[in-house]
């Protein structure tokens, strides 16, 4: 067992020994497994000791998104905004003052009042807060607070903004709702260089743009459009035309244009995988392939996304993940074989360090393609 693996097992044991943390991480894992199938499947390719941290980050994003986005909620926008501000504020305050996230022991919803019997996101019911796990993850990996503040700001925009005039305007929202997701994840993936950050940001940006294209119909029913108005005008498409649910020639050309843009950003992010720890690469490659697969499915469906939600089928998802899992198992087998050939301890001070210090392969320097 490597030094990192032994340290990881110790971290898992410490989480298991703390009842509140154990329940919080378990709640985050359930959210990830139930609502983020692609994300969860890719996470299985990480070392087991890193997965809880990824679940916590997903759980934070999912819970906040559900406060503002559920089609089933009867709460008016001002109450959702107050809930989001209170919930996110607890995390931000805890990070600034160095203590626990206050009021997290009885769930993440506000106290019932005003006739609301249960103010929890309607997609799931939980009496366990994800905030302790999120707080623990942020501190463990020293993730900048600004990434979470930007995310919460974008979530708040969803309660007030229904469309964006230009792609640059949209990117202001995407920076907080997508780009920073990649940046939040980056420390857990252990990059070898700060040069990995723009690639991680682009990956988060691409994933969010793909979500927009997959969910055009759902977002319309929420009263929002994430296709830039300038692009819609370029192809002669209006919100009213989208609302008919008919994918005609103009709508198809618009969606093809935006799919091409998402593909470009997804490709731009790919070289950054080589800047991650070797045990993180298959996870990220698999997530990128599966999200790219959503674009493939949109094209196969002839851009029929106004009345349905396309998805990568389970057989393809499992096939993509299985190939990566076989590579991981093969590498683990090689490591076990090599460990049997290690020199005696007395030559240790002349032997090179077994710890990983980063991939030496050069990756072209570049700027962030989203312009943020």
**Uncertain regions: pLDDT < 50 for 5+ in a row?**
110-126, 334-372
CATH fold type of the largest domain: Farnesyl Diphosphate Synthase
Give the helix tally. 15
What is the element string, with H for helices and E for strands? HHHHHHHHHHHHHHH
Assign the CATH superfamily of the largest domain: Farnesyl Diphosphate Synthase
State the shape: globular
Per DSSP, what share of the residues sits in E-state strands of 2 or more residues?
under 5%
Radius of gyration: 22 Å
CATH architecture of the largest domain: Orthogonal Bundle
Task: Say how many strands there are.
Answer: 0
In short:
The chain is mainly alpha-helical and 372 residues long. The chain has helices spanning 3-17, 19-35, 37-43, 51-69, 77-97, 131-141, 145-157, 167-189, 196-214, 216-221, 229-234, 239-243, 249-269, 278-300, 314-339. 38% of the residues are buried.
What features would you describe in this structure?
Helices cover about 60% and strands about 0% of the residues. It folds into 2 domains: about 15-110 and about 125-160, no CATH class; about 160-335, Farnesyl Diphosphate Synthase. It contains 15 helices and no strands. By secondary structure, it is an all-alpha fold. The radius of gyration is 22 Å and the shape is globular. Helix 9 runs parallel beside helix 14 (about 280-300) and helix 13 (about 250-270) packs antiparallel against helix 14 (about 280-300). The longest helix has 26 residues, at about 315-340.
